[in-house]
Design goal:
The chain contains 8 helices and 31 strands. It has about 400 residues and is of the alpha/beta class. It binds guanosine-5'-diphosphate-alpha-D-mannose.
Length: about 400
């Protein structure tokens, strides 16, 4: 049997995702019309003999309860949310629930970061892992040398694929191969995590009993049960024939900011062409609006037949899109109203917001720039004939004058 664990973090993480994470836990933010965490969950469905999917995080239980019960029913795979009382780090969180995870006696455990967007080639990873042996296999990708330092950089043996060297977010360049945050492990991973915390405990005891305590540097070590997969496990065990890499040639992105969520929504929409074409809107459907490129429209949304929509547009439940509206590269969240002849380009429009007649909400579309995508928080009212460019607007604001390059608090 195989078990999958998805790390969802908690409210103190994901702060770069504001203002969108003010309303909803980041893992539930919709990408291509599906909660972010649905995408890795759907990928897990393709694993043979999958017994359970666990989401581990430190959000309140109730924030995930509804989601977990509906997705379990929908997919007919048991999904359970396990809440940590506080962050234990990516490996510590896993270790915390080892008894539950081992209940099904799995031969392998997948571990996935929830905030990555990729094709999750999980069956292929498992197959490669069985060939390599060792304790785990890491999904890696080649990125540009300039962007590599935002991630874990690693060096692997080109022939055996063994992980030889691992450095988390190094200051000087190590490698353009990076850790994608997707792993498959044998249960030996629990022993490795246990060893890290035992070692920490021993060191702490040594410090306490040392008669030279006053002369020792202050104890800045981490709590013994806080264990990071990258720094505490992968770095020290690299080159010891424990870890191997599997390189993906598909797309991969990390989702830390709202701008990146827009890009990733587009990547998932284009993946739907192959995996779930029925979710994509087509111009000859009942909506009859002019559709170009990949577009998702929730069945409850009302779209006027004279609207022009796409590419990369995702429209959530109960949104109303008026006559003559133009939408390009945007996410329109639940209960939004976009009135006649308004234009939305490179933007995310928050829940219950409204955009007035002939107004424009737009941006340059540079996903990496701070204001490259315009974001409207929940319940923002843009009045008629107002132009909002490259801006972030916090919830509950009314805009009756045009703004450019501003963060409106
Ligand atoms: N449950 C739980 N508890 N989840 C956690 C905790 C924790 O204490 N800490 C982090 N996470 C979750 C986050 O929500 C995220 O999904 C994932 O674990 C990794 O988060 P971080 O540990 O903050 O690392 P990162 O995202 O900056 O970088 C990691 O992922 C990159 C790929 O996206 C590293 O492993 C990098 O090497 C890697 O390139």
């Amino acid at each position: 049997k195989v078990v999958a664990v998805i790390m969802v973090g908690g409210p103190t993480k994901g702060t770069r995702f504001r203002p969108l994470s003010l309303n909803i836990p980041k893992p539930l933010f919709p990408l291509a019309g599906q909660p972010m965490v649905n995408h890795p969950i759907l990928a897990c469905k393709r694993i043979l003999n999958l017994a359970q999917i666990y989401l581990i995080g430190f959000y309140e239980e109730r924030e995930f309860a509804l989601f977990v019960s509906s997705i379990s029913n929908e997919l007919r795979v048991p999904v359970r949310y396990l809440r940590e009382d506080r962050p234990h780090g990516s490996a510590g969180g896993l270790y915390n629930f080892r008894d539950l995870i081992m209940e099904d006696n799995p031969s392998h455990i997948f571990l996935l970061n929830c905030d990555v967007c990729c094709s999750f080639p999980l069956p292929q990873m498992l197959e490669a892992h069985k060939r390599y042996g060792g304790m785990g296999t890491i999904l890696v990708i080649k990125v540009s040398p300039e962007s590599a330092n935002q991630f874990g950089e690693l060096v692997a043996d080109p022939v055996t694929n063994e992980l030889l060297h691992y450095t988390e977010k190094p200051e000087t360049f190590v490698s353009d191969r990076i850790n994608c945050g997707v792993y498959v492990f044998t249960p030996d991973i629990f022993t490795a995590i246990q060893d890290v915390s035992t070692h920490r405990k021993d060191r702490a005891t040594l410090r306490r009993v040392s008669s030279f305590e006053a002369l020792q540097p202050p104890d800045r070590s981490l709590p013994t049960d806080f264990v990071r997969l990258d720094q505490d496990i992968l770095s020290p065990l690299a080159g010891k024939r424990q870890f191997y890499v599997y390189e993906t040639m598909d797309f991969w992105e990390q989702i830390k900011t709202p701008g990146m969520s827009l890009k990733c929504s587009g990547l998932y929409l284009s993946q739907f062409r192959f995996t779930a074409p029925h979710l994509l809107a087509s111009g000859d459907g009942t909506k009859k609006a002019a559709i170009s490129g990949d577009v998702y429209i929730h069945p409850s949304a009302k779209v006027h037949p004279t609207a022009k929509i796409g590419p990369n547009v995702s429209i959530s439940a109960n949104a109303r899109i008026g006559a003559g509206v133009r939408l390009v590269n945007c996410i329109i969240l639940d209960d939004v109203e976009i009135k006649e002849n308004a234009v939305v380009i490179h933007a995310i429009v928050g829940w219950k917001s409204s955009i007035g007649r002939w107004s424009r909400v737009q941006a340059s579309g540079d996903h990496n720039a701070k204001l490259g995508v315009t974001i409207l928080g929940e319940s923002v009212m843009v009045e008629d004939e107002v132009v909002i460019i490259n801006s972030i607007v916090l919830p509950n604001k009314t805009l009756n004058v045009s703004v450019q390059g501003e963060i409106i608090l």
